[in-house]
Automatic annotation (TrEMBL):
Gene3D superfamilies according to UniProt: 3.40.50.970
InterPro entries for the chain: THDP-binding (IPR029061), TPP-bd_CS (IPR000399), TPP_enz (IPR045229), TPP_enzyme_TPP-bd (IPR011766)
Record protein name field: Thiamine pyrophosphate enzyme, C-terminal TPP binding domain protein
Biological process terms in GO annotation: isoleucine biosynthetic process; L-valine biosynthetic process
Thiamine pyrophosphate enzyme TPP-binding domain boundaries: 5-152
Pfam families for this protein: TPP_enzyme_C
UniProt keyword annotation of Amino-acid biosynthesis present: no
Top-level taxon in the UniProt lineage: Bacteria
Family in the record: Belongs to the TPP enzyme family.
Keyword Hydrolase: no
CC per GO annotation: acetolactate synthase complex
Cofactor: thiamine diphosphate
GO MF term set: acetolactate synthase activity; flavin adenine dinucleotide binding; magnesium ion binding; thiamine pyrophosphate binding
Amino acid sequence: MVDDGNHTFLTAELMPIHKPRNMISPTDFNCMGYAVPATIATKLANPDKAVVGIIGDGAFLMTCMEIVTASMNHIGAIFTVFNDGELSQIAQAQQVPYNRKTCTVLGVTRFEGIAQATGAEYLRIESNDEILQKLETAWDLTKQGHPVILDVHIDYSKKTRFTQGIVGTNIKRLPFAAKIRMISRALVRKVTG
């Protein structure tokens, strides 16, 4: 289960999917907030399967209180929050033409507090070395009927293939005069930025 954002494209790029219907995504990649309730519904519909939501921190903040439903109904699913403190897909798209992030910083969010407020378990991953052990703990907790918020601190300094390609795609579709204007503005911002 994925929400909309950089994590969606990282999942598509990096996660092997071996069977049909084993990855669920919003159909048009534009439904922020989709994955928390969809993860709960998927687990309800498939109680014997392991269910994981992969959610950006901005999307998670839109619907995270729905995890109360998971706690009250002993729905053991993992809500993996890719936490970088901003709306990364939008921030990267703004950084290229504007040389700044105009409206994407989320600030400090204490996901441990959200876990406490919703009755979920909380685990935090700060480095690659912790991934396997924390996932194992999370799986054990879900088998006991506990929802788990897995707070993954991620570095998006390397752009996803989607972000790398969006600028080229947008430039190709523009008329020549608009291309020149857009490229000129981007160059001026880079130089004066």
